[in-house]
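Subject: sequence -> structure tokens, single chain

Hey, anyone have a minute? Need the predicted structure for the following. Not urgent.
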Amino acid sequence: MLVNVKNWYRPESVTGALSVMKKGGVIPYAGGTSFHRGGKITAAGMIDLRKLDLDFIHETESGTTIGACTRFKDIANYDFTDGRKILKEACSQAASTSLRNLITIGGSLSSIPPWSNIPAALLALNAEIEIAGTKASKFGIEKFLTEKPMDGTSLITRIYIPKSSGFGIYYRYSKTRFDYSLVDTAVYIEVKDEKIETIRIAVGNLLPKARRLPNLEESLKGLPINSERIADLVDKLEINPTSSSIASKEFRSNLVKVFIKRAFKQVG
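Reply:
Had a minute. Here:
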């Protein structure tokens, strides 16, 4: 619940929005779903980002650029024809239909709520996050999740996903359709001459933050896509999930292994 909001701002450019943010105590929003988690939020002002022309999906020869105000429903309905469909699947399985109509990819990355499935998907796709403001820069998704550069005077403007000609597979597990994920797993694989040439595996909602599994990736690279060693190497994966009142650590750890092996079987 928002209380004591004194001003509402509706800038028409990123520069205008950043200028208002310098006043301090103001909160930018587009979908606004993060304000409905319960509790009270006091703000000197609210900044409506919907006029900033950041609601788009653009294709180039090198990849896809997504505006920060693009809603999950639009990403879920977009026709990605290659490995980038990982993000499409993550957005289509997040939350409920009514919430996907509101949630923006930039807002989800700014706050990274506990239900968000997109960090793992973006890790597997090697995405870049573009930020304007005092922390203006392009961050690789791993660096972005580690440094958390959103400081109240910066805005996410674009998300870039390089061309992903390989296979993209995404799995999410929750007890019911609308529950938070117990774990989500994103796997991106490129195969050449029937061998694994490129492999990126990321897990989310399992550890304090979504992350890739570089040791496992390295051990799998170069193996034949149908090698029996893949299952053995995945079974040796050591991972210590955060505690959950819904499922044991053992269950969630094993679930990741099942998802990864299932992804390789699907590609093979």
